[in-house]
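Possible regression after last week's pipeline update?

I re-ran a chain I had predicted before the update to compare outputs. Posting the input and the new output here so someone can diff against the archived version. Not blocking, just want to make sure nothing changed silently.
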Amino acid sequence: MLNYEVDPGVLRDLVPSQTALDLWQGRALVSMVGFRFLKTRVLGLPIPFHRDFDEVNLRFYVVRETPESVRRGVVFVKEIVPRAAIAWIARRAYDENYVALPMKHDIRFPAAEGVGHGSVLYEWRHEGRWNRLAATFDGEAALPAENSEEAFITEHYWGYSAQKNGSTLEYRVEHPRWKVWRTTEAILDCDVGRLYGPAFTEFLREAPSSAFVAEGSEIVVRRGACSSP
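New output (post-update):
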C-alpha cells in the first residue's frame, strides 16, 4: 500500500453521491494497492481457473453518515485484474472501473511468521509497457496504532461506487484488523497519465507520503445496495 497526498479537487468529481471525502489529518490521500485474491468464491461458488489472481488498484477514501453509524469506505478510481472474465463479473456486480491487463507478481514473505525480511512486486502491461508496484520490508508485523495513518488506510470497511443513474452502490467489506510492516523501500513505476488520467500525474510521480505491507486475511465482500440518486 503506497499512499500519496493529492489536491482534494482532483477527487471532487469522483466522490459518489451521499458521501464526502474522508481526510487524514486534513489531507486527501490516494493509495496504490497490490494484492492477491486466493480461493475466491462468487456468491459462495468457486469459478474454475479464476480463484487465484492479482489485483492492483488506485483508491481513495470517503465517509457516509447514516442514522445508525458513520461508515468509512473506499472508492476505486480503477482496478486492474489479469482476466477479462473477472473484470466483466466485477463490472456487472458493482459497476466498478475494472480493466483486464497481463499481470505477474513476485512475493517473498519472511521465513519466520510475521518477522524478517520480505519483498512484494506486482507488474502489469499497459499499452506495450510493463508497470510495477513494489516494496521491501523488514522487522516484525504489528497491528497499527489506533488513530494512526496505517489504521486509517486499512480500516475502511465499506465500498462505494457511483452508478450511471446517479445513485450510489454501497457494500460492506468484512475482515479482521491487519498487521502491517513498514517498508524499507517502495517503488511505483507507472505511466500514471495514460492509466489514471493526467490529473493524478504530478502527485503519483512524487515519493509516497507513507508505504507499508499488510499481512491480509480472509475477507468477505457483501452484496451491495443502491441509494437513491
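Follow-up from reviewer: compared with the archived run. Residues 192 and 200 are 7 Å apart (CA to CA). Marking as no regression found.
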